[in-house]
From TrEMBL, chain A:
This is Ribose transport system ATP-binding protein. The keyword Membrane applies. It comes from Palleronia aestuarii. SUPFAM superfamilies: P-loop containing nucleoside triphosphate hydrolases. GO terms for cellular component: plasma membrane.
Automatic annotation (TrEMBL), chain B:
GO terms for molecular function: transmembrane transporter activity. The keyword Membrane applies. This is Ribose transport system permease protein. It comes from the Bacteria. Its main location: membrane. Residues 1-20 are annotated as: Disordered. Keywords: Cell inner membrane, Cell membrane, Membrane, Transmembrane, Transmembrane helix, Transport. The keyword Nucleus does not apply. It is found in: Cell membrane. The chain crosses the membrane at residues 30-50, 62-80, 87-105, 111-131, 138-156, 186-205, 226-247, 285-302, 314-333.
């Protein structure tokens, strides 16, 4: 059988650095071929080469056994290769149908015909989305369905999914995997990129691992397990990932939240944090975790409920007040909310506490250099020069800059929302050890995460939310995926719920 | 070494790194020195066109002519850095021109000047409050202020030039005399540029203004009260526009409500030629100053070369486009 796609000895160089050196990759019709690797391993570059967005410096791309030169993304789409990017490329103010047929809208549009055809494509995917709905009004999951329908409308024979579930809740992610299985049985070839290894095992037939721009190996999914994949990706076993939890004394209660109720459906949230403690906040995406974090940080309004901080009443009306009171937030959307990308690394670091490096509103360059130098050293941030823009850093190091900001500002309560999303395995370990360091310094740490292993490996106890309510709490002896999932989805555990009520 | 390659697969990081590694590539160089290059080329061109250009008299004239636009460009730079726009500067200048002619008649000079600046700042504060705290669009709000302030200037002056008579002599003396070989308005502009340079590069305020233009949400979530900063830039812009108007009265001895019609366009053009991005976060004081001078030299050359006024406007349009294309060459000519 001729392979649908054959990438042979692909090389791509950026300014003398090999992003890809001699990478091979094949895809057959009707298979799911997963592509793994740390951030920076070359996955995105390979995908962009396949999608015609970048021209390789060397090597051959064969489609149906025939060597081709892709002149651009449209050329790739013509040949049946569609890429569904992490950041979706939909026009929010157009309807579902218009988006699906964007780029090939007939000069005279027959609306009923267009809507009917769009409806058919969406039906085929097993979803109930009106072709007339505006894309802006759809959930992220439904937007992704529109993207897939768009690919199908272009008769895609190869669909590349780049981290499709990163923004989806578990339920939606499972439906997406169903769609992918359906596409596979229709003979579509799927390239699947994800950081979530459990998904990779659930969906793929073959797994290729890239490391430093080279093939690090290819295995049949049934022959591999999480251990082997991680070792291929980083060359080190999983157990070392979380590092040793240092012995920290858990001290006095510092933050107490009682009956916190928000305008957006989150209600009756009560819990407390103690110094030196790392508390997890689990639950499905959309269960209200981020909303709780933002409310405690003063970024969103509170309807009712009380909070105390170090025994005193605490009701922040803005992040400014929260920071003044020593409450810090590492937001979920790093690039959008955590850092100023074009600004220098040094300037980002001191932003939350400029007064420490300035006098009368003017910076004291020497003092600032000293502070920044110390932060870079203690957080082990890998950079060119401290004044380089943050955008020059890898995802993991960018996240460390956000952490550095709060190390410098020195709050007592740190809330981290998905601190390792989009961060490669190596940097994850370092971020975990920084979180331990925060706790060891006597801060109370609240970690929101969708990764079960992260919650269990990092936290002293885990609070679980579901549908805007706190559903229960897990102690270290209850750290199992089943318990966590049961609580998040809401089956059973009446005890826990009654205790919270 | 492995860490250096770590960012390679990520497109955004890669391009940035590639640009860094290549060192001073054309587009990077241009971003830093592009405005200066255009300015030097224009000066060379001008000196071949006319012997009158490279004279001390012409140079001081140029500085004086551009002092109003220059002073307003400082305020506009701050506004544009926050990703805003201020269309009201020309009208506030008119208000400044009229009120200064009125105030000198029955106030001491310092009081009159302070009051004029305060009026400009108040106009800016109104716009700033609406834009920053009520989150209304800057374009529309300052458009409204542009009409409103002009109207106010016309009402106060009854549509007639305000003649301060002999009581305006002190102001006029300042506006028309020289210090150390340079006209006083030019000195004022230069010192305001110097102050702005210090503020933008070395102060908390300047850094946060730039940061807000790049990523407002990240700044807010760092615990900074963003609206105060955003409102402040409009206050600064309004105050400086009033100063520009005062200078016109100081030079001419008459306060007219017709001062600064369409000046906002020249001011925005100067800031943009100076390399500032209307998307916020990018721009600096030195290049803005050069942008102002470019605008002045263009007019100056064409006058010396006898280009008719209508033609001048077309050339100016072309030059603005060329400057912006060159500054954005990095994005335009990649791939």
């Amino acid at each position: 059988m001729t392979a649908l796609i054959e990438l042979d000895d692909i090389t791509k160089t950026f300014a003398g650095i090999h992003a890809l050196s001699g990478v091979n990759f094949t895809l057959h019709a009707g298979e799911v071929h997963a592509l793994c690797g740390e951030n920076g391993a070359g996955k995105s570059t390979l995908i962009r080469v396949l999608g015609g967005e970048m021209r390789p410096d060397g090597g051959t791309i064969r489609i149906d056994g025939e060597a081709v030169r892709l002149s651009g993304p449209m050329d790739a789409i013509y040949r049946g290769v569609s890429i569904i990017h992490q950041e979706m490329a939909l026009a929010p103010d157009l309807t579902v149908a218009e988006n699906i047929f964007l780029g090939e809208l007939p000069a005279r549009i027959g609306w009923s015909e267009l809507n009917r055809r769009a409806g058919e494509l969406i039906d085929r995917l097993g979803f109930d989305i009106s072709p007339r709905a505006l894309v802006a009004d759809l959930s992220v999951a439904h937007q992704q369905v529109v993207e897939i329908a768009k690919a199908l409308s272009r008769k895609a024979r190869v669909i590349v999914f780049d981290e499709p579930t990163a923004v989806l809740s578990i339920g939606d992610a499972n439906r997406l995997l169903e769609i992918i299985r359906g596409l596979r049985s229709d003979g579509v070839g799927i390239v699947y990129i994800s950081h979530r290894l459990d998904e990779i095992f659930a969906i793929s037939d073959r797994v290729s691992v890239l490391k430093d721009g080279r093939n690090a190996g290819e295995v049949k999914a049934e022959d591999a397990n999480v251990e082997t994949l991680i070792r291929m990706m980083v060359g080190r076993p999983l157990s070392q990932l979380f590092g040793d939890k240092p012995e920290t004394d858990i001290g006095k209660e510092i933050l107490r939240v009682e009956n916190l109720t928000l305008p957006n459906g989150v209600a009756g949230i009560s819990f407390s944090l103690r110094r030196g403690e790392i508390v997890g906040l689990g639950g499905l995406v959309g269960s209200g975790r981020t909303e709780v974090a933002r409310a405690i940080f003063g970024a969103d309004a509170i309807s009712s409920g009380t909070m105390t901080l170090g025994g005193a009443a605490y009701r922040p009306r803005s992040p400014t007040q929260a920071v003044k009171n020593g409450v810090n937030l590492v937001p979920e959307d790093r690039k959008g909310q955590g850092i100023v990308l074009d600004m220098g690394i040094n300037k980002n670091m001191t932003m939350a506490n400029i007064n420490a490096v300035a006098r009368m509103g003017f910076f004291q360059p020497r003092k600032e250099r000293g502070v920044v130098g110390a932060l870079i050293k203690s957080l082990q941030i890998k950079l060119g020069a401290p004044s380089d823009p943050v955008s020059s850093l890898s995802g993991g190091n960018q996240q460390k800059v956000v952490l550095a900001k709060w190390f410098h500002s020195g709050g007592d309560v740190v809330i981290l929302d998905e601190p390792t999303r989009g961060v490669d395995v190596g940097a994850k370990t370092e971020i975990y050890s920084l979180i331990h360091k925060m706790a060891a310094a006597g801060k109370a740490v609240l970690v929101i995460s969708s990764e079960h292993a992260e919650l269990f490996g990092l936290c002293d106890r885990v609070l679980v939310m579901g549908e805007g309510r706190l559903r229960g709490e897990l102690g270290p002896d209850e750290f199992t995926e089943e318990r966590l999932l049961t609580l998040s989805i809401g089956g059973g555990d009446r005890q826990g719920r009654e205790a919270m009520a | 070494m492995s860490d250096r390659t770590a960012g390679i697969g990520e497109p955004a990081a890669t391009e940035e790194k590639a640009a860094n590694r290549k060192g001073p590539g054309f587009s990077r160089l241009f971003r830093t020195y592009g405005t200066l290059t255009i300015f030097i080329l224009l000066v060379l061109l001008a000196s071949t066109q006319s012997d009158a250009f490279l004279t001390e008299r012409n140079a001081t004239n140029l500085l004086r002519q551009m002092s109003g636009v220059g002073i307003m460009a400082i305020g506009m730079l701050f506004v544009i850095l926050t990703r805003g726009i201020d269309l009201s500067v020309g009208s506030i200048a008119a208000l400044g021109a009229v009120t200064s002619a009125m105030f000198v008649q029955d106030m001491s000079m310092p009081m009159a000047v302070a009051s004029v600046v305060l009026i400009g700042a108040a106009c800016g504060a109104v716009s700033g409050f609406l834009i920053a705290f009520l989150r209304l669009p800057a374009f529309v709000i300052t458009l409204a202020m542009m009409t409103g302030a002009r109207g106010l200037a016309l009402i106060l002056s009854n549509g007639q030039p305000v003649m301060p008579g002999t009581s305006g002599q002190g102001l006029q003396n300042f506006g028309t005399s020289f210090t150390l070989g340079l006209p006083n308005p030019a000195w004022l502009m230069l010192s305001l540029f110097a102050i702005a340079f210090l503020i933008l590069n070395f102060s908390r305020f300047g850094r946060l203004v730039k940061a807000i233009g790049s990523n407002e949400e990240a700044v807010r979530l760092s615990g900074i009260s963003v609206p105060w900063y955003v409102a402040s830039v409009y206050v600064i812009s309004g105050a400086l526009a009033a100063v520009a108007g005062l200078l016109v009265t100081a030079r001419s001895g008459v306060g007219s409500a017709q001062v600064g019609v369409a000046a906002e366009l020249d001011v925005i053009a100067a800031v943009v030629i100076g390399g500032a991005s209307l998307m916020g976060g990018r721009g600096d004081v030195v290049n803005t100053f050069i942008g102002v001078m470019i605008l002045g030299v263009i007019g100056n050359i064409m006058n010396l070369a006898g280009v008719p006024g209508y033609h001048q406007q077309v050339y100016l349009g072309v030059i603005i486009v060329v400057a912006v294309v060159l500054q954005n060459s990095a994005q335009l000519f990649r791939r």
